[in-house]
Design a protein that fits this description.
- The structure is a homodimer.
- Chain A is α/β, with parallel strands linked by helices.
- Chain A is 41% helix and 13% strand.
- Chain A has a four-stranded parallel β-sheet. In chain A, strands 1-2 form a two-stranded antiparallel sheet.
- In chain A, helix 4 links the parallel strand 3 and strand 4.
- In chain A, helix 1 crosses helix 2.
- Chains A and B meet through helix 1, helix 2, helix 3, strand 2 and helix 4 of A and helix 1, helix 2, helix 3, strand 2 and helix 4 of B.
């Protein structure tokens, strides 16, 4: 088969990224090739720098440039409430709502025996350590609404019980802007069960 | 807004790639962050190497690692026929058919007054230079079936006329595997005009 060495190596590398197939990888490769040299440097440096600088916050395990992340060090955040998430990108999603002023705890995974992820593989011990001094009054479980996510939440809430702390979870229901017709029956059922008084 | 410096720089860089939106850029960034260091190096080196090594073939303007591309130097290729393409990726598409054994000429663009691309901006002069010694007997115009592509083909074929060389173009018609119902009327009309004897 006809190949150009450096090009196919580059396409191969792009193709390893999640959700990038052969055609897209080719398009990305040609795009990068046509960039001016300083732009290419900027791109590769952003990758190398991020990979070098980003680490897990010593307190909440969120991604951070520093020892402790900017949320954990922010004196204006409410230290009595912790929102438990499975991945750092969920922190960004929550911060975008502008409706939450507490702290986070990023598990960096979900318990999943199928995939060989046991409770010790995610940051549960670190979460329990944070609850010991009595500052935290509420823990919000905000794992994904999947079997693994639910199981992880259940497991953790049972561990929190002895601490005498309120454990809540996100409301399930119809997503805003969606058409009822397209809601699946499980979501609709949960929305019905969780119905609230309007007046 | 809440941001992590190195992370948002990285997301920003991914987002500049064609067809990559904010969500995908974020997913790619997290993926890259979770790669082992040597894999990250491999990725950035593939980009830098490709950008440094790849250049245009001195003869056909296709992308190549060397002075002259592997197709132009291949003694087994038929030197009497040149297929004219707009972009290097089209060469790869043609090579995949395994049905063409001639040479290529990559214009690296299409004439498009709207986008400020005039005939001097693409490799037309270089094509005409290749026709002067009389080796080439046929030129296949294989530009894109768009207004710009057609105009480019028309323009070039008029320039080739004095050389007394056969100029052909790709057949238009129904793509294989497609449903007639979904063919647009222009394609269908072209397919009708270009109908061929079956027996």
């Amino acid at each position: 088969m006809y190949t150009i060495n450096s090009l196919s190596l580059l396409v191969e590398q792009f193709q390893r990224l999640p959700g990038i197939g052969n055609k897209t990888a080719q398009r990305l490769a040609y795009y990068v090739l046509n960039l001016p040299e300083n732009e290419v440097k900027k791109f590769t440096n952003a990758i190398l720098d991020a990979h070098k600088n980003l680490r897990q916050c010593k307190i909440c395990s969120n991604l951070t440039d520093a020892e402790i992340c900017s949320i954990c060090t922010d004196p204006k955040r409410d230290k009595s409430i912790i929102c438990v998430l499975t991945a750092p990108k969920d922190v960004i999603a929550f911060e975008k709502t502008n409706q939450y002023n507490g702290l986070y705890h990023v598990l960096n995974g979900e318990i999943s025996p199928m995939n060989g992820v046991s409770p010790e593989d995610i940051k549960i011990k670190e979460l329990l350590d944070r609850l010991k001094d009595g500052t935290v009054k509420e823990v919000i479980m905000a794992t994904n609404p999947t079997i693994e996510g639910e199981a992880t939440s259940m497991y953790i809430s049972r561990l929190i019980k002895p601490y005498n702390i309120t454990v809540t979870r996100l409301a399930y229901g119809i997503p805003i802007g969606a058409d009822l017709e397209y809601a699946d029956e499980i979501t609709l059922g949960r929305a019905l069960n969780g119905r609230q008084n309007m007046i």
